[in-house]
Structures are given as C-alpha cells and as structure tokens.
Amino acid sequence: MAVMRTTPPTPAAMIIMSFSSSIVVVVVVVVVVVVVVVVVVVVVVVVVVVVAAATTYVYLIVHSLLTLILDPHTTSSGSQHSG
Q: Could you tell me the pTM of the whole model?
C-alpha cells in the first residue's frame, strides 16, 4: 500500500481503479438481479398457494354438492332430523 501511494498513477493503477469501479457496477447489478429473482419467486409461491387453496375450496364445494345431488341419503342424515 505504501509503494502504491508513493508511485504516480500508472496504467496498471488506472486499470485497477476502473476495474474496481466496474466491480461496484457488477455488485449493484447482481444485487438488483437477486432482488428481482427473490420478488418473482415470492410472487410465484403466493400465486401457487392461492391457486391451490382456491382449487381445494372449489373441489370441496363441488364434491359436497355432487354428494348432495347424487347421494342425498348418506349426507348429514342425522343433522336433518335434529330439532
């Protein structure tokens, strides 16, 4: 470090400085890409969970309706006579 301070800027030092600035740019780009990927993954996971929950809900509703329509004697026969 002391040798670099005493010597005047050489093309190698300029290359190192420009390389360090490009490293900063690369780090910023990598951070932005990682943030975008994380956001996309979170959105995809949320959409998949919501679609799965909605599909399960609709399946349960349709299944119960079909059971009521096709086989009304087996579904909640005890609760119909209560009261």
A: 0.48
CB 13 within 8 Å of CB 4: yes
Residue 42 falls within a domain, yes or no? yes
> Given pLDDT bands bounded at 50, 70 and 90, which one contains residue 82?
very low
Three-state DSSP class for residue 67: helix
Tell me whether residue 15 is in a domain. yes
Domains: count for the chain? 1
CA of residue 71 relative to chain centroid, distance: 43
Domain-located, residue 38: yes
Rounded to whole angstroms, how far apart are CA atoms 24 and 21?
Answer: 5
Whether residue 2 is contained in a domain is answered as no
Average pLDDT, the chain: 80
Q: What radius of gyration do the chain's Cα atoms show? A: 33
